[in-house]
Amino acid sequence: MSDQVNVPTPPSINVSAWVVSKRYWYWLSALLPGVPLISAYIAVQTGSGIWLWFSVIFLYAILPAADWVFGLDNANPDSALVEKLKDDRYYVHIMYVVTVMHWLSLVGMAYVVSHYEWSWFSILGGALSAGILNGVGLVVGHEMGHKVRDKSQVLCAKIVMACCGYGHFPIEHNKGHHRHVATPEDPASSRLGESIYKFSKREMPGGFRRAWALEAERLQRLEKSEWSLSNEIIQPALLTITAYLLMLAFWGPLMIPFLFIAAAFGWWQLTCANYVEHYGLLRQKLENGRYERCAPHHSWNSNHKASNLILLQLQRHSDHHAHPTRPYQVLRDYADVPSLPSGYPWMFFVAMVPPVWFAMMNPKVVAWADADMNKVNLDPDLRDELFSRYHHAESS
Amino acid sequence: MNNPDIQNSVLQQYACPDCGYIYDESNGAEHEGYPAGTKWVDIPEDFPCPDCFITEKPDFLPFKT
What we know:
The complex is a heterodimer. By secondary structure, chain A is mainly α.
């Protein structure tokens, strides 16, 4: 129950007021899926298909600008406030609304691209915009998917993740990633020197295989077939297949590339999140053969106000890994933990340009490890090169 | 819990040191495939906490009410 880190100083009354007022700001998560809907409406009204790209611009340009303008949010709830907020169902109800909004957003965009004349370029923008929202939906699904004792949150997690057919994620993430995070065994922890493109080829299939194996093990203990409706990967997949087939039947074959691109770009957002969250960080193996417990210094954090409100404070990632079941409204910022130079939206963009990512992040990982490459989760293919370049090369 | 074997033996509880989950032998961990009445000794060593999944059986502590 205790934290291994220094407890922050008690917040002032103003800090508490801000933390409490965030209860209204979290509604931004529910408004966000409205962004592609509104931009699609403008596209229809103006006849200008470029508006279908708006959500892409929103993620990679407007949100990073908002992070830059609004800066950091270091406010933590004190223990009395945590007790008050942590079981408040209000925060859960927001996520139920968000779940509905994500389905409306996906179906709305599918309707708009299929019912008006657009160039292929505009349709691509619409599909990528829907994909970005699918990715944001996975953040909400992630939050609810951790609350395994709350059946309605688990159900809602499956529903929102079915938007892009990624229902295996809660199993992969809770039982796989959280257990093996920041170790070479984890396909969802990125390694020093590994580009996001190389990482995605390990992370996407590796995560699915691990989820399926874990679910098959569980069902085996329950003496049920892995090919049954008890399989919690198959359940949300059936929802995805049903919804996609209905859209295909009513709105035509354009739905095939549209839904595929929208789903795949949603998965890609999640891959970006996994990529930036633990890049290069490594837990040490203990003498008993087990890894040391995941500590706050095994996650990259970002305390940017704007993106944290929209991403349900997922960027307070050290606290999330220290306490995976802690609800988003009481996640805390720790002092002296690995910090990203910007919020996730901008880091996702940078990650897609590997030379810039390496230039920005490799020195941070080297400093984190005091230039000892034995303490870094590094790409085994580049082991010699990374050792000769970074090992005890820099004073830190 | 209608099983007389379960009722007649002393059932133990073990707590996850991180999230506070309590493994109660009388409830087991049904969703994970360990039915009610499963003794702690019969739980495998690599059993993760079925709530937070970051601790394993050797981390658990006996829990007394």
